[in-house]
Amino acid sequence: MQRCSRSAYRINGIAGLVGFGGLICFVISIVWMCFGVFVNAPLGRSLWLFGASIFIGFLGRVLHWYSFFLVNQKGFTYDSGTREGSWLQGDSRVTYKFSKELDSPFK
């Protein structure tokens, strides 16, 4: 995906971070509401945090979908068995095969 569309790759990375933030917010909201039950705090005031976590998770999912929508417009396909991606660039099909030696960040 990174070689096919850099913007879609960045959006996909941002979607992962947003989704993780939504998950963290969801866990915090559950812990906060459980704590509120033990100290007899009103539950209605902490529901906004729960709703915000659901919204953040939904936003991450929409960004993830949009990144795949962008690469699907270029006809992107990926074969995990051969680790080969291909997409249309103009009238020709571009193929990229992942090789650990060339793409390793630990050279």
Overview of the molecule:
With about 110 residues, this protein is an alpha+beta fold. It has helices at about 5-40, 45-70, 100-105; strands at about 75-80, 85-90, 90-95. A 3-stranded antiparallel sheet has the order 1-2-3, with no helix packed on it.
Outline:
This protein is an alpha+beta fold and 107 residues long.
Helix and strand content put the structural class at alpha+beta
| Uncertain ranges | none
The H/E string reads: HHEEEH
Q: Report the span from N to C terminus.
A: 22 Å
Determine the strand fraction and express it as a percent band: 5-15%
Q: What is the percent of helical residues?
A: 55-70%
Overall spatial form: elongated
Sequence of strands across the biggest β-sheet: 1-2-3
| Main β sheet profile | 3 strands, antiparallel
What is the count of helical runs? Answer: 3
| Total beta-strand segments | 3
Keywords:
elongated, 107 residues, 3-stranded antiparallel beta sheet, alpha+beta
Give the arrangement of secondary structure elements:
Blueprint (H helix, E strand, L loop, with lengths): L5 H33 L8 H26 L4 E3 L4 E6 L2 E6 L2 H4 L4
